[in-house]
Amino acid sequence: MTEIIGVRFKSGGKQYYFDPKGTQVQAGQGVIIETSRGVEYGECVQANTMVEDSAVVQPLRPLVRIATPKDLETVRRNHEKEERAFRICQEKIADHGLDMKLVDVEYNFDGNKILFFFTSECRVDFRALVKDLASVFHTRIELRQIGVRDEAKMLGGLGICGRPFCCCGFLDDFQPVSIKMAKTQSLSLNPTKISGTCGRLMCCLKYEQDAYEDAVKRMPKNESFVETPDGVGTVSQVNLLRETVKVRLDDEPENPRCYHNCEICVVRNGKGKRPEGYVAPPPEELAKLRKVTAPPESEEDRLSAALANLTLAEEPKPAAPAPEEGAEGEKRSRRRRSRSKKPAQAAKPQGEEAPAKEARGDKPRTERPARPPKPKSERPAPAKEAKEHAESAPAQEGGEGQESTKKPRRRYRRPRGNRPKGEGGAPKAE
Q1: Mind listing the pLDDT tens digit for each residue in 323-361?
Q2: How many C-beta neighbours within 10 Å does residue 224 have?
Q3: d(Cα 193, Cα 200) in Å, to the nearest integer?
Q4: CATH tag for 219-287 (out of 3.40.50.300, 3.30.360.10, 2.30.30.30, 2.40.50.140)
Q5: What is the pLDDT of residues 196-224, one digit of tens each?
Q6: Residue 158 to residues 196, 297, 367: CA-CA distances in angstroms?
């Protein structure tokens, strides 16, 4: 086992292993490392870790020290120098008339070397350019030609998916991508549609290639002869992601049907003639291939079920009613029972009301015995009657109360003509 730390010199760059020399380094700390190009500043992305000897390439470069505030200031000054060197180099390229595009400038930590990265479609003779740059900066000058994929990694940007470049974010190195991957994944073979900003095939084609290759092994090919729960037919379309196929049945070739991969039995994989002497199984045997699955639950149903469960969990349980004593408890219980019976009575149809009344013994008002009339003074008068009684009281005398009870009630009739208000329904006694 070997103790190592992982260091990255650029954002999204490759991770390198170094020997910490017994120093405990935390992830995110700046470190000074001795490399083949000299002393460099990097960021620790993997703390002290023990790995197998076969996972590292010996000998490991040592850790010089953890970066100090002075080292960070040196890095900041080098970035300012890189901006100035970039402008000067562009001017020199224009003066010499070279067909090259300057991409980036990188200063060494010690400042004794400047590295210029450029792209070009052909070989460039930049010997005169190097001499001019050396006379300006008075240090070692190195020009390095890179490809378009490296250019995209250095410059960064957004892909057609709307996310930052994978090569600039997390890819340590570039993996080979071929047009065969796009064909396996049933993508458009138009290079403009499957190419990234750099003009090369998108790196993301490599991510799902293994999953697609596994699905291709398990799924039938187009024009395969298969058995389905509804009969035999030929495969017309294959969906690798859903693992479904469309089959043209021999009985209904105009209406292809969709089946899951587990519901079909492949008789012949790919194009070709049907097996000699093949006899289709009876419908009862084919029906056994059908897999009964529950219908997919929609997103709204899942959300409503989750909300219902949440409300049931949060709803407090009703406390047990305390035993009530005395007449008050009996009255309350009767009220509760009467309230519970009201909805049941209201739900009954109209045809059942008459039998229910007969069972209770209800009789019409005409059959009920008339009660003896009470004196007018003892009966509670309604608001309108009380008002009329107050207006007619001065004109009435004793003994009229009994007569008024025998006569028809005229207090609800409108007065005729211009009869004075003081004249009531009963005539004045003479």
Answers
A1: 444 445 455 555 555 554 444 444 444 444 444 444 444
A2: 22
A3: 11
A4: 2.30.30.30
A5: 888 888 888 888 888 888 888 888 988 88
A6: 10, 36, 95
